[in-house]
Design goal:
The strands form three sheets. This protein has a five-stranded antiparallel beta sheet with strand order 1-2-8-3-6, with helices on one face. It is of the alpha+beta class. Helices cover about 15% and strands about 30% of the residues.
């Protein structure tokens, strides 16, 4: 499958940004340009699962410096409270997402930080250890929502953590929903 031109331009922009100071801000600006237009993502990479959110790998840098995924939500779906352990940027392509930041130490129940906010199409949010890495995200609309994420590693293979409401820490690795009809554009 051919890589859509906007995604190719974004991949090239990420490669350039990672060699510069303030790389995350540059990546965030490039992601905002990518999600400003909702015509380029093939429908197969925007298919929700009936029971849970899922992510499709769009591109994994061969040297492991970053990955790009489409994150797909059905109505009412949400993540658990989780971290990333690496820098990232999330841009909403269609629909909307609620995001609530948390603080969690693994011994006490996670506590919300500030108010929940909503990301609409074209909006981008940074995540990671330097900017706030623990949050819960949910679909904010009664339709499918799709966001495009870029992370500073192959996020589907990267060890991360879930923070249960009662406290504690559970390790997890998210993996990908890709199948024969949804190969990565790598």
């Amino acid at each position: 499958m051919n890589t859509p031109d906007p995604l190719m331009r974004f991949i090239a922009a990420v490669h350039v940004a990672l060699g510069q100071p303030a790389a995350h801000e540059t990546v965030s600006a490039a992601l905002a340009r990518l999600v400003a237009h909702d015509y380029w993502l093939p429908p197969a990479y925007a298919q929700p699962h009936p029971e849970h959110h899922q992510q499709y790998l769009l591109h994994a840098d061969p040297t492991g410096r970053f990955s790009i995924v489409s994150f797909v939500w059905g109505p009412g779906q949400a993540t658990p409270i989780h971290d990333h352990g690496v820098w990232g940027a999330v841009g909403v392509l269609r629909g909307a997402e609620h995001s609530q930041a948390y603080t969690a130490d693994g011994t006490t129940p996670p506590r919300p930080i500030g108010d929940r906010h909503t990301l609409h199409p074209g909006m981008v949010e940074l995540v990671g250890p330097d900017v706030g890495d623990i949050h819960k995200v949910s679909n904010a609309v009664e339709a499918v929502s799709v966001s495009i994420h870029v992370y500073g590693t192959d996020i589907g293979r990267h060890p991360r953590h879930v923070y249960p409401p009662e406290g504690g820490i559970k390790p997890f690795i998210s993996g990908y929903a890709n199948g024969p009809d949804t190969p990565a554009f790598s």
